[in-house]
Specification:
295 residues; 6 strands; 9% strand
Length: 295
């Protein structure tokens, strides 16, 4: 009775099917299993509530039986277990798809709220109106575009547009031809200038001028190199004269050698009676050693 009251209040248009069975005593086990099987065979409901009001543990014991638990677990229809009060717990609660604390709570779980449905319908109505307005706006926009396209497809208008397009193309063609003609004239003038620059007479004259300039630069370079060589030769000659033995001989010195050409620099190198050759600044002397004095 409590479940029917809640269902009528929340969803008065919701159809309800009742499968009457005993819910207490040994006979209740088979009846509950049979009722679940019957509901599955008929397939006339979307959800099945299996339950009863409160009672003692012995009163609720049939919902702890294995046969009832297996029937609930094997049901193709979703099952809500609503056995006793909130504090009562049976095996059926664990086998079911959902446990409700009370039968009234089970009815609230399976029945949509009328006010919520009304709000949902109002929201859907608003969305539908907005969608219709958008479609009308889009259709009006498409109509305007089609009207413009139809106006553009008017034969007289298209002929005028094509005639204007032909005039524009003719003007562009004339401009392009004039531009190409001017480009050709400028290119011809540039080629004439380049041809004049490549004239054999001009090239020969330019070659002669380059040859003359190169010859002058070569003579100047040779003269500069010769002057540098003369200057360097003079410096080297002066340095050579400074270290030359002849210059030393010219200042009154002489060089004495043995007859084999060995330079005498110490008295111990000669013996008394030995013949030596003395080189003077001008000429040579052949001398004989009378005495040898060593330091």
């Amino acid at each position: 009775h409590d479940m029917l009251t809640v269902l009528k209040r929340r969803a008065p248009d919701l159809p309800v099917f009742i499968y009457p069975t005993q819910v207490q005593g040994s006979a209740a086990i088979g009846q509950i299993v049979s009722a679940i099987a019957l509901a599955n065979r008929r397939a006339e409901v979307d959800v099945l509530i299996v339950g009863r009001g409160g009672g003692s543990l012995e009163d609720l014991w049939c919902f702890n039986e294995e046969a009832v638990a297996r029937a609930i677990a094997g049901s193709a229809i979703p099952v809500v277990s609503a056995v006793g009060h909130e504090v009562d717990v049976t095996i059926s609660d664990f086998a079911a798809d959902l446990r409700a604390p009370t039968p009234s709570a089970a009815a609230e779980l399976v029945a949509p709220d009328q006010s919520a449905r009304a709000q949902r319908l109002a929201h859907l109505k608003q969305q539908l109106l907005q969608a219709m307005n958008r479609q009308q706006t889009a259709a009006r926009h498409d109509f305007i575009l089609l009207q413009k396209r139809l106006d553009h497809q008017d034969p007289k208008r298209r002929l005028e547009q094509q005639s204007q397009r032909l005039d524009e193309l003719s003007a562009r063609l004339q401009q392009l031809m004039n531009h190409k003609l001017h480009q050709g004239e400028r290119r011809l003038a540039n080629l004439e200038l380049r041809l004049q620059g490549k004239s054999p007479e001009r090239l020969l004259a330019a070659g002669k001028r380059r040859h003359q300039l190169a010859e002058e630069r070569l003579h100047a370079l040779i003269a500069k190199r010769r002057d540098l060589a003369d200057h360097r030769l003079a410096m080297l000659s002066a340095r050579l004269d400074g270290v030359s033995p002849l210059a030393t001989l010219g200042r009154g010195y002489s060089i004495t050698r043995t007859q084999s050409g060995e330079v005498i620099s110490r008295a111990a190198q000669v013996d008394a009676g030995q013949t030596l050759v003395t080189q003077l600044a001008e000429g040579q002397l052949r001398v004989r050693v009378e005495e040898v004095h060593q330091p």
